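Blinded run. Sample ID left blank on purpose so nobody reads anything into the name before looking at the predicted structure. Input follows.
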Amino acid sequence: MYDSGDYPKAMDVALKQLGYDELKKDVEARRKKGEVTGIGIASFTEVVGAGHGADFDILGLRMFDSAELRVHPTGKAMLRMGTKSQGQGHETTFAQIVTEELASAADVAVEEGDTDTAPYGLGTYASRSTPVAGAATAMVARKLRDKARKIASHLLEAAEEDLEWENGRFYVKGSPDRAKTIQEIAFAAYTNLPEGMEAGLEGVHYYDPPNMTYPFGTYAVVVDIDKGTGQVKVKRMVAVDDCGVRINPMIVEGQIHGGLTEGFGIAFMELITFDADGNCIGSNFMDYLLPTRGRRRSSR
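Blinded prediction complete.
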């Protein structure tokens, strides 16, 4: 079930950013002069994340994932994940999620890939970590914030419904000076609890997503080819991606740049292959395919 998507808008934005109408006229004029040039446009819908466990599994294992969050008495936090970063920037984005929900990013340490300490999870593959493990991180942080609200209510001697959450602290409505920071609440979680409450400020959440997620977009590129040498020059490139909420825009842009680099390589016949024994077949320029232009033989 597709969750959303305004595909015509993605196309319109891409063509506008490219300056399509003017470029099309320019391309047509240059082709009449014998130049080889063109505009390529491609739209896509991608399926990422993981579906609900009742419908999606791997060898019977549900495709949920996990996050364990522990806030120490000092207010510093440890986030342990069931996934492992492969260069996507988990350490940054997951810490930002905790920051948004609970505390300062400077006080959040992210630990991944240690099977001795990590909660159970299915690891990292494809594009599932943020929609699943990221959601688990948000959910466990909210659980801890709910408990923190109860502790703040106890410390401030105010009803829970009279407390507001803002910038890592709870304060009494109408009295912003009457407040307790998450650091103060974390210390109280081990020293000054409401009667009957279990000590500590920690928890784990296993997130079973309701659906896959469906990012989409349109890419457009202007290409020139030298008729004499066959050299390809990418003159202009526009990438329009609707990926939902961007936790860290710089990381999103970096991932798009990396994807474009791979796309250019594949389009220009880059290929790394291995034989049955695991030896790289194209390990040197004697074996690796280098695109060349054949010389036409004269009939004379």
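Unblinding after everyone has recorded impressions. The first helix runs from residue 7 to 18.
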